[in-house]
From TrEMBL:
<dbReference type="GO" id="GO:0016787">
    <property type="term" value="F:hydrolase activity"/>
</dbReference>
<dbReference type="InterPro" id="IPR029058">
    <property type="entry name" value="AB_hydrolase_fold"/>
</dbReference>
<dbReference type="InterPro" id="IPR000073">
    <property type="entry name" value="AB_hydrolase_1"/>
</dbReference>
<dbReference type="InterPro" id="IPR050266">
    <property type="entry name" value="AB_hydrolase_sf"/>
</dbReference>
<dbReference type="Pfam" id="PF00561">
    <property type="entry name" value="Abhydrolase_1"/>
</dbReference>
<protein>
    <submittedName>
        <fullName>Alpha/beta hydrolase</fullName>
    </submittedName>
</protein>
<feature type="domain" description="AB hydrolase-1">
    <location>
        <begin position="20"/>
        <end position="135"/>
    </location>
</feature>
<keyword id="KW-0378">Hydrolase</keyword>
Length: 267
């Protein structure tokens, strides 16, 4: 399994395909596996990089506290270590928050950025959702935590329709769960996110995209995000939930591809 030293930790990564570079950055779960519905499809025409973040999957799990600033530093170090030239970043939720920080700090590092189901600043609704997830993690079994978290990720109909596939996958994730303290520290970092002062600094071409039925980061968060980044595009799809790259992969892939095509033609 390939790994590389970045910002003082061993980072697991996967690299497939040939062509312009896309780096996919996951949400709270933080693993490369989240992007399985995208990797093979995009690797036909692009170099696709996925990785496990600090405290997730097969990368190192150092003790906290964690911060999104540190996760952005980790990503910058990974881009440098792999010699990636002006990748397009696709960030889901927390991955989008990491992208916001990186793009504001390092103008010109990224050719473009897709901020998917992300948010500009943690507010009351957002923090109440994560307080509930935090309470589940502290006060219940891991099985209850992963099943409870799924309620925030998937539309009700999708969850019910695909329960036979999703439930074993959720139970498997519980069996390979990181230390609770690490996940709690990652949740605390997410709840502290406020990019209000950073977003006006972003000059990277940006697409903000979310689903209308996302209950964790509802569309108003994406509207705020797109409105704060100069020239950002906004796409809101009718359904798919917080994880619509997983629930509606053909739609997500096409939206992201159309944006990437425009970015590369502009460059």
């Amino acid at each position: 399994m390939p790994s590389i030293m970045t910002n003082g930790i061993q980072t697991y990564f996967e690299k497939q395909g040939k062509g312009p570079v896309i780096i996919f950055v996951s949400g709270l779960g933080g693993t490369a596996a989240y992007w399985a519905p995208q990797v093979a499809w995009f690797a036909q025409d692009f170099t696709v990089v996925t990785y496990d973040q600090r405290g997730a999957g097969r990368s190192d799990h150092p003790a906290g506290p964690y911060s999104l600033d540190t996760l952005a530093d980790d990503l910058q170090a990974l881009i440098a270590a792999l010699g990636l030239v002006r990748p397009v970043l696709v960030g889901h939720s927390t991955g989008g928050a990491i992208g916001q920080i990186l793009a504001a700090r390092q103008p010109g590092l990224l050719a473009g950025m897709v901020l998917y189901a992300s948010w500009p600043r943690s507010d009351l609704h957002f923090n109440w959702c994560f307080r509930m997830r935090r309470a589940l993690l502290v006060g219940s079994s891991l099985e209850e935590y992963v099943h409870g978290s799924a309620l925030f990720l998937y539309p009700p109909e999708h969850l019910s329709k695909h329960a036979e596939r999703l439930s074993p996958a959720l139970l498997a994730s519980a069996r390979h769960f990181p230390q609770r303290d690490v996940v709690l520290s990652r949740i605390d970092a997410i709840m502290a996110h406020d990019a209000t002062a950073l977003l006006p600094l972003i000059t990277t071409p940006t697409l903000v995209v979310c689903a209308q039925d996302d209950i964790l980061t509802p569309p108003y968060q994406s509207r705020l995000l797109a409105g704060a980044i100069a020239g950002a595009e906004l796409t809101i799809v009718p359904q798919g939930g917080h994880s619509f790259s997983e629930t509606e992969p053909p739609l997500f892939n096409q939206i992201a591809l159309d944006f990437m095509t425009r970015v590369h033609h502009a460059n």
